């Protein structure tokens, strides 16, 4: 009997830890500086970098291995750092195809960065919340000034140099009231790939922060954009929130831990080599080990980490288990499960009301797109259904 390949896992890498050149109001990561000694240089050493790249490539069974460089702000590590990344990846590559992705606030992008990213096929996620009025509410620099002008300049540089990119748009409280304004703006800037992320944060006393999105308004935000997308933009603009939903309606394994039955296969490595259970759980109690003395492949299989991943399903309230849309939601991220159900069960996701509203609204369209896909027809044909009943004919197959 052939040996079974080990299950793959994913690692988000923090080359400069929580260090950032901005001071966004809703950022949850700046506080992580408290985990490290005062005055600490937040930069990954060559020793840590090499140990990580070697172990990561040795432990991945799949044909394509993705490195995700995150922050803080990963561009605070200079070009020399990423040139070393490429050298080490080539040194330890084992026949895998390597993909590099980088998530940036965009402020430090210039022609030199854009040329490097383009030449070396980096996929870039750039944080942009919408128009100048919307973006500058919370995304400020260290002097309290809005960052929109610098970010939009960076985005246009990516386009100029042919860098593949998507936009990560955070949906905070005020943003949720302007969905069509956000969507129209992103379209006007030629954005073809976008992901909307709900801002949900609590203060040290457990109270919801003033900038956190209201649950039902988040649902309304997604619905408003979905209605525009499903009528005009299917196959032209890729809203990842809708792509993930379609994947779940089709019965495929969730590509994102957020909507998977369990989690625990997406770790995060800090600049000093410390490995934690998840990007949203970088706290001392979730520290698994360090790549300078431990092996990544062993850390992800620790009982502690397996229990962490299984708890997502094990601790799901009965209220959720009986929900029509359990298959699409799976209770979402455990970090946001701090409400109680109507029957006083703990563990209800803060965004539950919004998700229910959103999933109920898109249900008929998702079922229609799945039907199209099953009949080998472009899912973009769903746009016809918004103008009347959708009739699938075999002679449409090559349309």
Provide a quick synopsis of the model.
This protein is of the alpha/beta class.
End-to-end separation in angstroms reads 46 Å
- The secondary-structure element order is EHEHEHEHHEHEHEHEEEHHHHEEHH
Mean pLDDT: 93
The Rg value, from CA coordinates, equals 22 Å
- Given the helix and strand composition, which structural class is it? alpha/beta
- β-strand amount: 5-15%
How would you describe this structure to a colleague?
With 399 residues, the chain is α/β, with parallel strands linked by helices. The protein has helices spanning 46-59, 79-92, 111-119, 132-135, 148-160, 179-188, 215-232, 240-249, 296-299, 303-314, 318-321, 326-329, 352-374, 382-385, and strands at 10-13, 64-69, 97-104, 123-127, 165-171, 193-198, 238-239, 266-269, 274-276, 287-290, 339-340, 346-348. Helix content is 36%, strand content 14%. The protein has a 10-stranded mixed β-sheet with strand order 7-6-5-4-3-2-1-8-9-10. The protein has a two-stranded antiparallel sheet with strand order 11-12. Helix 1 (46-59) runs parallel beside helix 2 (79-92) and helix 7 packs parallel to helix 13.
């Amino acid at each position: 009997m052939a040996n079974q390949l080990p299950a793959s896992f994913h690692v988000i890498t923090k080359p400069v830890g929580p260090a950032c050149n901005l001071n966004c109001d809703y950022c949850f990561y700046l506080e992580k500086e408290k985990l490290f000694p005062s005055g600490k240089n937040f930069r990954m050493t060559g020793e840590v970098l090499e140990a990580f790249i070697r172990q990561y490539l040795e432990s991945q069974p799949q044909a394509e291995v993705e490195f995700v460089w995150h922050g803080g702000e990963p561009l605070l590590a200079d070009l020399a750092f990423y040139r070393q990344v490429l050298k080490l990846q080539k040194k330890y590559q084992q026949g895998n195809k390597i993909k590099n992705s980088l998530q940036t606030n965009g402020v430090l992008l210039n022609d030199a960065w854009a040329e490097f990213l383009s030449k070396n096929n980096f996929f870039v996620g750039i944080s942009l919340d919408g128009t100048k009025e919307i973006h500058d509410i919370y995304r400020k620099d260290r002097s309290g000034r809005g960052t929109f002008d610098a970010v939009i300049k960076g985005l246009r540089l990516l386009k100029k140099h042919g860098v593949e990119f998507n936009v990560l748009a955070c949906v905070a409280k005020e943003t949720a009231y302007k969905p069509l304004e956000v969507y129209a703006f992103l379209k006007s800037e030629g954005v073809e790939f976008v992901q909307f992320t709900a801002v949900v944060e609590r203060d040290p006393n457990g109270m919801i922060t003033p900038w956190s999105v209201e649950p039902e308004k988040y649902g309304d935000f997604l619905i408003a954009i979905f209605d525009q997308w499903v009528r005009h933009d299917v196959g032209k603009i890729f809203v990842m929130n809708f792509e993930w939903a379609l994947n779940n309606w089709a019965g495929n394994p969730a590509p994102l831990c957020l909507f998977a039955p369990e989690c625990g296969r997406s770790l995060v490595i800090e600049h000093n080599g410390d490995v934690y259970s998840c990007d949203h759980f970088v706290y001392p109690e979730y520290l698994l080990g360090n790549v300078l003395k431990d092996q990544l492949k062993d850390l992800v299989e620790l009982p502690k980490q397996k229990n962490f991943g299984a708890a997502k399903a094990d601790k799901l309230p009965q209220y959720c288990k009986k929900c029509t849309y359990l298959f699409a939601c799976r209770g979402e991220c455990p970090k946001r499960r701090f409400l109680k159900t109507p029957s006083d069960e703990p563990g209800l996701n803060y965004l539950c009301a919004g998700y229910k509203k959103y999933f109920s609204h898109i249900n008929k369209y998702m079922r229609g797109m799945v039907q199209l896909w099953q009949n080998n027809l472009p899912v973009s044909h769903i746009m016809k259904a918004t103008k009347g009943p959708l009739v699938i004919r075999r002679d449409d197959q090559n349309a």
